[in-house]
Amino acid sequence: MRKKIIAANWKMYKTPAEAREFMEKFVPLVAGHERDEIVICPPYVDIAAVVDGAKGTNIKVGAQDVYWEKEGAYTGQISPAMVVGAGCEFVIIGHSERRQYFGETDDTVNRRLEVALEAGLRPILCVGEVLEEREANITEDVLRRQCSRAFRGIGSNKAAKLSIAYEPVWAIGTGKTATPKIAADAHSIIREEAAHAFGGEFAQKLRILYGGSVKPENASELMAQEEIDGALVGGASLKPDSFAKIVKW
Ligand code: PEP
Question: How far is Cα 184 from Cα 225, in angstroms, rounded to an integer?
Fold first, then answer.
């Protein structure tokens, strides 16, 4: 059995004060919850507040991205060492919103993934097809391409801390959710690519999360699927009671 990871992606929501307020309410709601790993990925400026609020709990903290250079004249960028130093254990890499709005490509995803793993972070690599790709029946090709390019040059010894989130882009923030069958089919393609790159034993242990309009009402059906090893949750992670209900699916 793979322990599930229930991760919140706060995107560009919450000030530090709002992050602190969230933690005050959320921590007691999930106290003692050991069945799943709980992760919160806030905006960079909220990391300190979330790390502080998570002290003494089993809630882990992640960043939403990292740059691939160690340091230098890269105004506005944040390095893996910086987020590690700030208390992050996880990092989201290649989220579809980064691909869609900020010029992220399979190649830059690969660079970020490599440095994140080198820094000892636990990356959650996001892959997933857009609606036109699903309708054109090329979902499998898209997933295989995104995975194989992201994995390029990464040795199986380094990949141990990797998790992947299958996030069909048509389901993100739209209220549409992939059926368990759609998610399970995509997850097995991703697992095959991971086996190809890093070996069968690694692939069996790899956690593949589902993301796309997960909410309290659909979390238990999705999380009950053997192929689904957790959730990456956007909108429904912003309220403490809603995210706590998902954690306790
Ligand atoms: C996400 O941001 O990764 C996501 C899945 O968003 P939402 O849950 O709002 O669809």
Answer: 8
